[in-house]
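Usage

Read records sequentially. Each one opens with the input sequence:
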Amino acid sequence: MELKKLEVPTTSITEVKRSPMEVFEQAKQAGTAVYVFNREKVAGVMLTQEQYEALVQELDDLHGKGNVLSKSPEIIEKRVVDTGLEELYQQLQENLMSETSISAKTLDERMVSHGFITRKTGFGGVTDMLNELKQSGKIVYQSRQKVSGKNVIAEVLGEQDKKARLLDHINIERIYLK
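and closes with the structure output:
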């Protein structure tokens, strides 16, 4: 990729080695990242801690775009799109996130009890759920009815519990409501 014109500050790897704090100060003053070159090629980018955290927050906001549930209290991010999802958020948090491991069958039954369409269709329903989880890292549910006039999609993120005696158990990491 050829860089024609950089609209951000640049520096050399030699300058970074000589005085990294000056490069951080340059990034802070410019309000943007500083490209670090090594032999006329971009070797990396330097950001201040604040700039990095702002980028991570923006990335989380882009990925979430809904309510987020997480087991770890310090990671819980609650983004309420509308008040209709607030109640659903609370119910899912209480019924799904309290357990460390849950069977795929129980997960499906609880999602159905909260108004989502079952994923256990046919003989291999639980197997299909686990395969989807292995392939994409999530199981996607669609609501049966609209909440506040909108269709709700729930993405259950997690992984198969390899420590469980039965292979159909899942460790839920997060649930996104969109």
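Summary fields computed downstream for this record:
- Residues 65-177 form one domain.
- The first strand starts at residue 10 and ends at 12.
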